[in-house]
Design brief:
Four copies of one chain form a homotetramer. In chain A, the strands form three sheets. The first copy, chain A, has a six-stranded antiparallel beta sheet with strand order 7-6-18-15-9-10, covered by helices on one side. A six-stranded antiparallel beta sheet of chain A has the order 14-13-11-8-16-17, with no helix packed on it. Chain A has a five-stranded parallel beta sheet with strand order 2-1-3-4-5, with helices on both faces. In chain A, helix 1 links the parallel strand 1 (3-8) and strand 2 (32-34). Chain A is built from six helices and 18 strands. Chain A has two domains: 3-116 and 267-280, Probable inorganic polyphosphate/atp-NAD kinase, domain 1 (Rossmann fold, 3-Layer(aba) Sandwich); 123-259, Probable inorganic polyphosphate/atp-NAD kinase, domain 2 (Tumour Suppressor Smad4, Sandwich), CATH 2.60.200.30. Chain A starts with a strand and ends in an 8-residue tail after the last helix. Chain A is α+β, with helices and mostly antiparallel strands and 288 residues long. The longest helix of chain A has 14 residues, at 15-28. Chain A binds chain D through residues 161, 164-168, 170, 179, 182, 187, 191-195, 197-198, 200, 202, 209-212, 214-219, 222, 271, 273-274, 276-277, 280-282, 285-288, and chain D through 161, 164-168, 170, 179, 182, 187, 191-195, 197-198, 200, 202, 209-212, 214-219, 222, 271, 273-274, 276-277, 280-282, 285-288.
Chain lengths: 288, 288, 288, 288
C-alpha cells in the first residue's frame, strides 16, 4: 500500500476536515496520496502533482468518503482498473461502505498491515450499437435502467436473452440489475433479493402493463438485448441511477456482465445477511 | 335527443368519413349536431354555427369516435356537465367504449328510441392550493398521478387521509385512482381490480423504496393530501396520463371524489367482469 | 347499561383475577353480569343464574378479555344480535380491541355514562347449499377462506360474482374478506389494505398458479359463488381462521355481506390509519 | 444404449399400449428393457427378469411416459444414479418432458445413434437431523416446502443461511426451490423465474404475515436451515409437492444443493425461454 487515492464527497459535512487529516496521516506513513482535481481545488492545495485522474494505473487502493451513492460513482469511474475501494461512511450503515468515521484510522492501520480481504462484486456493461456515442462501453455496479419520461406514453421493450426472444414488455421501463443492485431499484419494482457474491443478471420490468410479466434471473454468461419500441423520444438509459443517456425509438441496448469486478475492501465480519436485516427489516418482529 | 355533439379522434383511420356519415344520418333525423372547432376545420365545413365549445349546456349526448384514451379526454373536458357519452371504438374492445363501427347506426337508432341505460362512473378532482394556477380544480376519470422524472432522485410523498397522517412514501410516485382507473396504471403498480360501479379511492405507490408500502382503499368521502418532499424540481402531476402539470417541492396536492360523474351510455349487457376477462385474461387457461 | 356479558379468554395470564374484579365492580354499580358456562365453571362460582348463553337477547354490551382473536370469536357467536362489544386487551395493541387493562375501569365508567361511540363493521355470511349441514348460515368478521390441505394437489375455484363468471383460479385457495379482514390473511396473500368502515368484499386468490390473477374488490351488494373443482377431498372452509368445515369436490360456497354488523364500542380517537401505522409499519423510516 | 428402463404413468390413457410397443421396438434393436414391478404386473407380463428396481446401476437411460409430474417422481427415485431421463408427454408441452408420442420412435432412433445432448438440472437435498427417520437424506428436483395444515395457526420459520440468521418468517410456509422449481410453486408465491441451468437456491415465503419478507436468491454453496416454531403439530414437509413427511415443532430442516444432477435427454433446440413463453405467457399481447 504505497499509492492511495481519496475520493471525497464534499456534500457531506466535515469532508474537507477528514480528508485533510487522512492525507496527513497517510503521508506520515510514507504513502503517496492522490486526489481528484476537483478535490485539490476545493481543499485549496498548492498545485498538486499527484492528480488521481492521471494515476489510476498505479493506485493500490481508493478511499471513498461518502455513502453508497458516492461509492457507486467511484466504482463506475475506476471500473476497468479493479482498484480496491474502501468506503467510509459519514452517516448510517451502507450495503457497500465498510467503515464509519470513528473507525477510520484504526481501520487504515489494519489495511496497511495487510489485515483485510477483498470482496468481488460483479459489474454490468452496456453498449448502444446503433448510437454514435464516443464512448462505446458503459459500466454500472447496481443497475442499468431503461425508462420513459414521467409524462410520456408507455414504451414497449422487446427483450432478448442471447438470440432468444423473451417478451415485449409494455411498461414504464426495465431494470437490468447485478446481484449488488438487487437491493436497490429492482427491489422496489418487485425483484428478489440476491446474495451479492453471486454472478447473475436480474431483469425486472417496471410497472408492466401486462399481467404475466415477472422478474427473471439469468446466467452471467447470457447477454440481454433490448430494442426500444416507442412513438416518442422521451426515453432514458441510466447507470446506477446516476448517469443518464438519451435513447431513441428502435435503439438497441446490449447489457452483459463486465469483464472485471468492483473490489471492495472488507475488514469486518458483517455478512450481507446481517446488513440486510439492519437495512430492510424492522428491529422487532411486526406481524399482522 | 335533439342536440348531439361529436368528438372525433382524427388519428384513427376513417374518422373523417365516419364522422361525416354520422352527421348526415343525425341531421336526417332532425337532430342538431355540434362539433369541436378543430373538427370543423379538418372536415372543411363552411363556417359552422354549432360549435361544441359554445354549446355544452344544451347537449343531450356526445358521441366519441376513438378508443378509451379519447373517451378519457372527453370525459375530463365535459366533466361538470354530466353529458352522457357514447364511446364508438375503431379497434379492439375497450373498458369504456360501447360500440364498434359496424354497430354504429343500429345503436344510434336504439338510443334515439330511448333504449339505453346510463352507467355512472365516479370521477376524481384535484387542486393545488399552494400553486398560482388560473384553474383551481382539475378532473380525472381514471387517475391522478404524481411522479418524478426518469432521471431524478426519488421523491418522498407525505400522505394524509383527511387530517390523518398515513405515511411518507419514498417512491417513484403515487397513483390516486378511481374504481374505473383500477384497471389502468394502478394495476401495473400492483393495485387491486375494483368494480367500476363502486365509489371509493385507491392509493397505490409506484416502486416504493420501503418494503411495507401496500395499496390502500379508502372511502369516497375521504380526501387525500400529498405533500411533495424532494430536493429537485423534476416532479409532475398527470391527469389520466394525458394532461400534465409541473409540481414544486413542498407543494400540496389535494385529491377527492368529484361532485359529478361521467355518464356512459350503455346498450349492451356486457358486464365489467366479462370485459375484464376478455381484456386481461388469457383465452384459454394457462396454468403453471 | 343494565345487562353486561363478559367473555374471558382464560389462556391469557390474569384473566380470572381481572374477570372477578370486573364482575364485582359492575355489581357494585347495580349492573347484572352474564358469563358463558365455561367461565362460570373455571371461576368456581356457585350455580350462576345469569348464563350468557341464555341471555343474548337482553344484553346491552359484552366485554371481551383477550386479543383480536378472541374478539373475532365472540363477534361470530353474537353475530345476529348486534350486541356492542368492548375489547379489552392484555397484550399489545389490536385492530379490534379498544382498551388495555390499566384503562379498564376508567373506560367502563365512561361507557356507563354514555360517553362512547359505536363503530359498525361489516360482516360476511356464507352458506353451502349442496351440503346437508344443520346450520344453514355461517358468519365471519374477517374472512371466509377456502383452502386445500398442505399435501393435497391444487384445487380449481370456479368463481362467480352474481351470475357473472369471473375465473377458475388454480390455487392453494381463495380468501373472501371484509374490509376488517383486509389487514389479516388477505394482506399476506397480496390483497390491498381497506378502510374497515367501508362496505365491500375483497376476493384474493392464495398462491394462484396462473399469472394473471389479481385481488378483486366488489360491491357489498354482490354475492360470490365458488364451485370447488378438485379430484381429492382435502378441502376446507374456515371462518376467521378459527372455525373449520370440510368441503367436497363440486360443492358450492356462497358468500355475501351479512344482514347485520359487528358493533365495536369506541372510547378513543385513534383512527384506523393510526393503528395501521403502529401495527404494520416500522417505527422509523427504513428506506432502501 | 444397451440397457433402457421405462417408467409408465398408467393414469394416462394409452400408456399400456405405448409401453408395450416401445418394449417391442427396443427389443428389436437388441436393447434390454427394464420395468418397475408395478408395470410388470399391470401389463400382465410373465415373470420378468429385468426388474428396474434391481438394475439401477446398469441403466443407460430411463424413458418416462407421463407429464412433468411423473418425471419429477422418477428424478427423485433415481436421484443419486444420474441416469439420463427422457420425458415423453401424452398431453401438452412440459418444462421437463422432451417428446410427444408421435415423435417417440424417430426420437429414440436419434438417441440410439447418439444424436442428443444432456441437460443438467441441479437437485436439492434435505435432512431432518432431529428426527429418527430411517432415511437420512431426501431429494427433490423442484422444491422442498414446509407448510402448515390448512386449519392450523400460522407457524414461524426461523431461517438461517449457513450460520447466518436471516429472519423468522411468520407465514403459511416456506419454499426452498431449485432453478427448475422456480416456475412451479415458488412462482405462485411471488418468486422470480430463474434460468434452470443456473445453480442457486431460491427461498420464497408463502403468505408471510410480515410486510417486509421478500424472495431471496442464495448461492449453490450455501446451506439453508429452518427451525420450525409452532404451538401445534400440523406441519408438513413436501418434496416436489409429491412426497410428504410430518414435522414437529422445534424440528430442524436442512436444505442444500444435492451432490448430483438430474440429467435430462434433449433432442430439440427448444430453449427454456421458448418453453416459458408457450407455457406462461399469452399467445398474443394482452396489454391493459
Amino acid at each position: 500500500m504505497k499509492q492511495i487515492g481519496i475520493f471525497p464527497n464534499f456534500k457531506k459535512v466535515n469532508t474537507a476536515k477528514i480528508t485533510t487529516e487522512t492525507i496527513k496521516w497517510l503521508k506520515n506513513k510514507g504513502i503517496n496520496v492522490y486526489l481528484p482535481r476537483i478535490a485539490v481545488e476545493i481543499l485549496g492545495f498548492p498545485q498538486y502533482q499527484n492528480l488521481l485522474e492521471r494515476s489510476k494505473e498505479i493506485l493500490d487502493m481508493v478511499i471513498v468518503f461518502g455513502g453508497d451513492g458516492t461509492l457507486l460513482r467511484v466504482a463506475r469511474e475506476l471500473a476497468p482498473k479493479e482498484i480496491p475501494i474502501l468506503g467510509v461512511n459519514f452517516g448510517h450503515l451502507g450495503f457497500l461502505t465498510e467503515l464509519e468515521i470513528p473507525e477510520l484510522f484504526s481501520g487504515l492501520e489494519k489495511i496497511i498491515e495487510g489485515h483485510y480481504r477483498i470482496e468481488n462484486r460483479m459489474m454490468l456493461k452496456t453498449s448502444l450499437p446503433k448510437n454514435n456515442l464516443k464512448e462505446r462501453q458503459f459500466y454500472a455496479l447496481n443497475d442499468i435502467v431503461i425508462t420513459k419520461g414521467s409524462f410520456a406514453r408507455l414504451i414497449r421493450l422487446e427483450t432478448y436473452v442471447g438470440t432468444e426472444y423473451i417478451e415485449t414488455y409494455p411498461a414504464d421501463g426495465l431494470i437490468i440489475s447485478s446481484p449488488t443492485g438487487s437491493t436497490a431499484y429492482s427491489l422496489s419494482a418487485g425483484g428478489p433479493i440476491v446474495n451479492p457474491n453471486l454472478n447473475l443478471l436480474l431483469i425486472t420490468p417496471i410497472c408492466p402493463h401486462s399481467l404475466h410479466a415477472r422478474p427473471l434471473v439469468i446466467s452471467e454468461h447470457e447477454e440481454v438485448k433490448v430494442i426500444i419500441r416507442a412513438d416518442h423520444q422521451d426515453i432514458m438509459l441510466t447507470l446506477d441511477g446516476q448517469q443518464g443517456l438519451k435513447l431513441q425509438p428502435n435503439e438497441e441496448v446490449i447489457v452483459s456482465k463486465a469483464d472485471f469486478n468492483t473490489k471492495l475492501i472488507r475488514l469486518k465480519n458483517r455478512s450481507f445477511y446481517e446488513i440486510l436485516r439492519e437495512k430492510l427489516a424492522e428491529g422487532g418482529h411486526k406481524e399482522f
